[in-house]
Amino acid sequence: MAEIAIIRCEKNLEKCPLKSCLKSLVNKKEAFSQYSHVSPAGVFVCRCPGDNVVELARKLKSKGAEVIHFTTCTFATKTSNGWCAEEGGFCERIDDIMRSVHKKADIPCVKGTAHLPQGYVPVVLG
Ligand code: SF4
Questions:
Q1: Looking at residue 4, what is its pLDDT?
Q2: At what angle do helices 53-62 and 94-104 cross, to 10 degrees?
Protein backbone atom coordinates (compact mmCIF):
# COMPACT_ATOMS: atom_id res chain seq x y z
CA MET A 1 0.00 0.00 0.00
CA ALA A 2 1.47 3.36 -1.01
CA GLU A 3 0.32 6.39 0.97
CA ILE A 4 0.38 9.12 -1.65
CA ALA A 5 0.21 12.87 -1.13
CA ILE A 6 -0.17 15.60 -3.72
CA ILE A 7 1.30 19.09 -3.74
CA ARG A 8 -0.40 21.50 -6.09
CA CYS A 9 0.24 25.07 -7.25
CA GLU A 10 -1.66 28.05 -5.87
CA LYS A 11 -1.94 29.54 -9.37
CA ASN A 12 -4.48 26.87 -10.26
CA LEU A 13 -6.26 26.74 -6.95
CA GLU A 14 -9.56 28.30 -7.96
CA LYS A 15 -9.71 26.96 -11.50
CA CYS A 16 -9.13 23.29 -10.83
CA PRO A 17 -10.76 21.14 -8.14
CA LEU A 18 -8.14 18.43 -8.70
CA LYS A 19 -10.69 16.04 -10.15
CA SER A 20 -8.37 14.44 -12.72
CA CYS A 21 -5.51 14.12 -10.23
CA LEU A 22 -7.70 12.46 -7.62
CA LYS A 23 -9.36 10.18 -10.16
CA SER A 24 -5.98 9.13 -11.51
CA LEU A 25 -4.75 8.44 -7.99
CA VAL A 26 -7.66 6.28 -6.88
CA ASN A 27 -7.75 4.44 -10.23
CA LYS A 28 -3.94 4.00 -10.37
CA LYS A 29 -3.68 5.68 -13.77
CA GLU A 30 -1.27 8.11 -15.39
CA ALA A 31 1.55 8.97 -12.95
CA PHE A 32 0.08 6.59 -10.36
CA SER A 33 0.09 3.53 -12.60
CA GLN A 34 3.18 2.01 -10.96
CA TYR A 35 1.41 1.40 -7.65
CA SER A 36 -0.44 -1.81 -6.94
CA HIS A 37 -2.37 -0.35 -4.00
CA VAL A 38 -2.86 3.32 -3.17
CA SER A 39 -4.17 5.30 -0.25
CA PRO A 40 -4.57 9.09 -0.37
CA ALA A 41 -2.39 10.84 2.19
CA GLY A 42 -3.48 14.45 1.68
CA VAL A 43 -3.14 17.51 -0.51
CA PHE A 44 -1.24 20.71 0.19
CA VAL A 45 -0.82 23.94 -1.76
CA CYS A 46 2.51 25.41 -2.77
CA ARG A 47 2.61 29.19 -2.55
CA CYS A 48 5.05 31.35 -4.51
CA PRO A 49 7.96 31.34 -4.41
CA GLY A 50 7.72 27.87 -2.93
CA ASP A 51 9.43 28.53 0.37
CA ASN A 52 6.64 26.74 2.25
CA VAL A 53 6.92 23.45 0.43
CA VAL A 54 9.57 21.63 2.46
CA GLU A 55 7.60 22.26 5.64
CA LEU A 56 4.41 21.05 3.93
CA ALA A 57 6.21 17.91 2.81
CA ARG A 58 7.44 17.25 6.34
CA LYS A 59 3.87 17.55 7.61
CA LEU A 60 2.58 15.17 4.95
CA LYS A 61 5.31 12.71 5.86
CA SER A 62 4.44 12.99 9.57
CA LYS A 63 0.84 12.11 8.64
CA GLY A 64 1.96 8.98 6.85
CA ALA A 65 2.72 10.06 3.29
CA GLU A 66 5.32 7.79 1.68
CA VAL A 67 5.61 9.66 -1.61
CA ILE A 68 4.64 13.10 -2.89
CA HIS A 69 3.41 13.79 -6.42
CA PHE A 70 3.59 17.30 -7.85
CA THR A 71 0.71 18.19 -10.15
CA THR A 72 1.16 18.01 -13.90
CA CYS A 73 0.02 21.64 -14.29
CA THR A 74 3.22 22.78 -12.57
CA PHE A 75 5.27 21.78 -15.64
CA ALA A 76 2.82 21.31 -18.52
CA THR A 77 0.08 23.29 -20.25
CA LYS A 78 -3.17 22.20 -21.84
CA THR A 79 -3.14 22.87 -25.58
CA SER A 80 -5.43 22.01 -28.46
CA ASN A 81 -3.26 18.90 -28.92
CA GLY A 82 -3.46 17.81 -25.31
CA TRP A 83 -1.10 18.51 -22.44
CA CYS A 84 2.31 19.71 -23.49
CA ALA A 85 5.49 19.94 -21.38
CA GLU A 86 7.49 21.92 -23.94
CA GLU A 87 5.57 25.10 -23.16
CA GLY A 88 6.07 24.72 -19.43
CA GLY A 89 3.42 24.98 -16.75
CA PHE A 90 2.68 27.23 -13.80
CA CYS A 91 6.08 26.82 -12.16
CA GLU A 92 9.51 27.65 -13.53
CA ARG A 93 11.05 26.36 -10.30
CA ILE A 94 9.35 22.98 -10.07
CA ASP A 95 12.55 20.96 -10.60
CA ASP A 96 14.40 22.90 -7.88
CA ILE A 97 11.40 22.64 -5.56
CA MET A 98 11.17 18.92 -6.06
CA ARG A 99 14.88 18.43 -5.44
CA SER A 100 14.68 20.53 -2.30
CA VAL A 101 11.69 18.61 -0.94
CA HIS A 102 13.31 15.28 -1.71
CA LYS A 103 16.54 16.24 0.01
CA LYS A 104 15.30 18.25 3.00
CA ALA A 105 12.10 16.34 3.80
CA ASP A 106 13.70 13.02 2.85
CA ILE A 107 10.72 11.66 0.94
CA PRO A 108 10.40 10.29 -2.60
CA CYS A 109 8.98 12.82 -5.06
CA VAL A 110 7.31 12.28 -8.43
CA LYS A 111 6.81 14.97 -11.07
CA GLY A 112 3.31 14.43 -12.41
CA THR A 113 -0.20 13.33 -11.52
CA ALA A 114 -2.93 13.22 -14.19
CA HIS A 115 -3.16 13.91 -17.96
CA LEU A 116 0.55 13.36 -18.59
CA PRO A 117 1.92 14.85 -21.81
CA GLN A 118 2.30 12.32 -24.60
CA GLY A 119 5.53 10.39 -24.22
CA TYR A 120 6.32 11.89 -20.84
CA VAL A 121 7.70 9.45 -18.28
CA PRO A 122 7.31 10.82 -14.74
CA VAL A 123 10.55 11.97 -13.15
CA VAL A 124 11.09 10.20 -9.84
CA LEU A 125 13.44 11.36 -7.10
CA GLY A 126 14.04 8.71 -4.50
S1 SF4 B 1 6.51 28.19 -6.53
FE2 SF4 B 1 5.78 27.18 -8.36
S3 SF4 B 1 4.35 25.58 -7.70
FE4 SF4 B 1 4.69 27.03 -6.02
S5 SF4 B 1 2.98 28.47 -6.19
FE6 SF4 B 1 4.74 29.35 -7.26
S7 SF4 B 1 4.49 28.70 -9.39
FE8 SF4 B 1 3.14 27.43 -8.15
A1: 98
A2: 40
Contact status, residue 72 vs residue 112, Cβ threshold 8 Å = yes
CA–centroid distance, residue 53 to ligand 1 (Å): 9
C-beta separation of 74 from 57 below 8 A: no
Atom of ligand 1 nearest to the CA of 94: 2
> Which pLDDT tens digit goes with each residue over 45-92?
999 999 999 999 999 999 999 999 999 999 999 999 999 999 899 999
**Res 87: pLDDT:** 86
Whether the Cβ atoms of residue 25 and residue 40 lie closer than 8 Å to each other: yes
- What contacts 45, CB < 8 A, 6 or more positions away? 7, 8, 9, 10, 13, 56
Distance 37 CA to ligand 1 centre (A): 29
